[in-house]
Amino acid sequence: MKKKNIFVGIDLGTTNSLVSYIHDGKPQIIPNERGERSTPSVVSIKNNGEILVGEMAKTQAVLNSDNTVSNVKLSMGKDVKYNIIDKEFTPVDISILILKNLKENAEKYLNTKIIDTVITVPAYFDDNQRTATQKAAELAGLNVLKLLNEPTAAALSFGFNKKEESRLLTVDLGGGTLDITLMEYKDKKFTVKGIGGSTSIGGNNFDKAIIDFVLEEFKSMHSFDISQDKIAYQQLVIHAEKAKKDLSSANETKIMIPYITIREEGPIHLNISLDLNKFNNLIKTTLGEIEACINDTFEQSGIDKDWVDSIILAGGATRVPAVETIVNSIIKNKNNKNTKKGKPENVNDSLIKRDINPDEAVCLGAGILAGIFEGSIPDMEFCDITSRELGVEDDEGKMVVIIPKGTSYPLSVTHLFTTTQENQDEVIIHVLQDGDNTGNIKDSDQKMVSLGKFHLKVAPDKKEGEPNIDVTFTINMNGILKVSAIDLDSGQAGEIIIRDKQK
Ligand SMILES: Nc1ncnc2c1ncn2[C@@H]1O[C@H](COP(=O)(O)OP(=O)(O)OP(=O)(O)O)[C@@H](O)[C@H]1O
Ligand SMILES: [Mg+2]
């Protein structure tokens, strides 16, 4: 007899996606059909309707940028449309294509059907973004056992098979998102203590800094701007990323693109050097933002930096040496009062755990949880927390907070409301969340996002303040919110599952 289906973990990344499963009691990455351990999250559609996903889509992007979508994760849950060969695609549509490709490849490799999955999302993903991810998975033919927060997944892979207790700082810097988590690991249980980050900081920002620098250099060398030349620009995108990666292990690199453009006087080649110092200077702003996000996470969760005893770096962009230096200096400045900022770091002093592969930790963690659901490895418990305030709008247009930021879930909370006018026969339950979808935590206090609303009939002929209306907020294990309300006198009830918002 053979098992009919296997549960898998999927890291649906901004730049790269990975799949894992439990084999011989351990999480293993499932290679794609090219034998590679990760698949670029890039989709392209050819004129004949053929769909390309992964490396094939990525390599032809230079000549076909209009019909190629990358970084779709950054648009999940937002009102964005892609026009590819006269057809409109939503971010969910594009993600379905990526997920189907991952599913098919894994099915071929394991020679079995794949339905049940754990999919990772940034801890800082809001309700709309989570819902869109779940919807894409379902439409790709997958059953989502849980949407797992990425840093929690990285920590699960760290804690797997370990006995000792840890107090972890996880910094996950991927292509487009920064996720920070403070977490305790004790008696095989993870408890998330604090969450922070931004959905607009990632390795892409480093690439962009290099691209801008090269465009400026090129302009001053040749008195000519190539930023509007799509093909030249696409080549530059690829070479900038490559240069960034070179500088993770070398002090200097060259960005060379022969025949980048042709002018009257003949072809022009791009040949520009970039050293590590210059690169660190170019990315100063992003580094500052990363530092601010980490500091904010400590501040907002009320946890002291001394508390941390281990650091996990996840995400390809944490390979940039300056990122590691910043993380070390934030913790060390606090832990060792004699350490001066800017002083070269002694690697041996670092709390960074080097047995974690930053590219694979998130996916392996998702695979571990899938294995727990499948029953193929022993249970590990964990408890996540909300990353935003959730509440309802009151009659003055202000948010009444029902679930504060940092609350553990799954949970259900009920508050009692009433009317503000005599003979009021209806109330509007307007569900709000703090912050905007793209900014970092600092901006989030300034705006409120509407998650949906519904009208509830209340018993008529009542004085103001007389009716009793119970409003209940429930967050399930995937972090998806349901709001229900009931007028206790008439028994009239209504509810909204925030995922209904996604079409
Ligand atoms: N050796 C390296 N040095 C510097 N940056 C690197 C290196 N390897 C990969 N990266 C960068 O890491 C980023 C991709 O990381 P990763 O694959 O972890 O992201 P992702 O999971 O797709 O994104 P996200 O977690 O934001 O959804 C890219 O910006 C890539 O250029
Ligand atoms: Mg990632």
Secondary-structure map:
Elements: E1 8-12, E2 16-23, E3 26-29, E4 39-40, E5 43-45, E6 51-53, H1 55-59, E7 68-69, E8 82-84, E9 87-89, H2 91-110, E10 116-121, H3 127-139, E11 143-149, H4 150-159, E12 166-173, E13 178-186, E14 189-198, H5 203-222, H6 230-246, E15 252-263, E16 266-275, H7 276-282, H8 284-301, E17 310-314, H9 321-335, H10 361-374, E18 381-385, E19 390-393, E20 399-403, E21 408-409, E22 411-417, E23 426-434, H11 441-444, E24 448-457, E25 469-475, E26 481-487, E27 493-497
Parallel strand pairs: 1-10, 10-11, 12-17, 14-18
Antiparallel strand pairs: 1-2, 2-3, 2-4, 5-6, 5-7, 8-9, 12-13, 13-14, 15-16, 18-21, 19-20, 19-23, 22-25, 23-24, 25-26, 26-27
Helix pairs in contact: 2-3, 4-10, 5-6, 8-9
The structure holds adenosine-5'-triphosphate and magnesium ion.
Provide the residue-averaged pLDDT. Answer: 89
Number of helices: 11
CATH superfamily of the largest domain: ATPase, nucleotide binding domain
- Percent helix: 25-40%
Low-confidence regions: 337-345, 436-445
Shape annotation = globular
Task: Describe this entry's structure for a reader.
The protein has 503 residues and is an alpha+beta fold. It folds into three domains: 8-162 and 358-383, Nucleotidyltransferase, domain 5; 203-282, Alpha-Beta Complex (Actin, Chain A, domain 4); 390-501, Sandwich (Substrate Binding Domain Of DNAk, Chain A, domain 1). It has helices at 55-59, 91-110, 127-139, 150-159, 203-222, 230-246, 276-282, 284-301, 321-335, 361-374, 441-444; strands at 8-12, 16-23, 26-29, 39-40, 43-45, 51-53, 68-69, 82-84, 87-89, 116-121, 143-149, 166-173, 178-186, 189-198, 252-263, 266-275, 310-314, 381-385, 390-393, 399-403, 408-409, 411-417, 426-434, 448-457, 469-475, 481-487, 493-497. The strands form seven sheets. Strands 1, 2, 3, 4, 10 and 11 form a six-stranded mixed beta sheet that branches. The chain is globular, with a radius of gyration of 25 Å. Mean pLDDT is 89; it is low at 337-345 and 436-445. Bound molecules: adenosine-5'-triphosphate (ATP) and magnesium ion (MG). The site of magnesium ion (MG) has 6 residues, from loops.
